[in-house]
Amino acid sequence: MSVLTLTSVEEYLSALYRPDCDLVDGALIERNVGQKDCSKLQGEVFAWFRARRRLLRLIAFPEQRVNVGPQRYRVPDVCVVRLPEPDEQVFSSPTYICIEILSPDDSFPPLQARLDDYLTAGTENVWVLDPASRRGWVVTREGHLEALDGVLRTTDGKVEMPMADLFPEDLD
User: Fold this and answer.
1) Hey, what's the torsion of the CAs at 80, 81, 87, 92, to 10 degrees?
2) In terms of Cα–Cα distance, which of 87, 93, 74 is closest to 30?
3) Cβ(49)–Cβ(56) under 8 Å?
4) Across 127-145, average pLDDT
5) What pLDDT, on the 0 to 100 scale, is given for residue 4?
6) Do the Cβ atoms of 93 and 86 come closer than 8 Å?
7) Are 28 and 12 in contact (CB under 8 A)?
8) Running DSSP on this structure, what letter comes out for residue 11?
9) How far apart are the first and last CA of the chain?
10) How far apart (Å, rounded) are the C-alpha atoms in residues 168 and 153?
11) In CATH, which superfamily holds the domain spanning 33-171?
12) Which residues contact 125 (CB under 8 A, 6 or more apart)?
């Protein structure tokens, strides 16, 4: 029988994990990382926002620690905040967008727990991208809404991200 070792917030925030992991009520939760398709899509999402930083007044952060509640820290694949960027090294204020990129090893219950944490913390927009199917969803308290027209949109209409921009190899 394995014994769960609890980790304090202070220990988590001062430690370096490779790859980084989440902290949920004292438990370290590993994230599925390291697969090419997921990494490539993460880079495309980051580059899309980077190219529009001045226009949208937004900045994207890959794998940034975000405080989503007492004793709860998540590391979204990409999070987006409004400029000016926060001074803090670990974000404690709600982000504008949290984006999760599905891995073949992801299962729905843990993913939904992550998405719920973002929504509970006040994240305004939560998106899920699947590199295998090249599909995307906007997640709200009411459920998951697929971007059937191929465009992910924020609730305030400020951002419209065409999924085709994220898969440039389709344009070759």
Assistant:
1) -90
2) 74
3) yes
4) 96
5) 65
6) yes
7) yes
8) H
9) 52
10) 19
11) tt1808, chain A (3.90.1570.10)
12) 96, 97, 98, 138, 154, 155, 159
The one-letter amino acid at 109: P
Per-residue pLDDT tens for 90-105? 999 999 999 999 998 8
Tell me the average pLDDT of the chain.
94
- Distance between CA atoms of residues 50 and 71, nearest Å: 31
Contacts of 43 (CB under 8 A, 6+ apart): none
Are 51 and 60 in contact, with CB atoms under 8 Å apart?
no
Which 3 state secondary structure label does DSSP give 62?
A: strand
DSSP state of 87: S
Token code pair at residue 93: 């204020």
pTM: 0.93
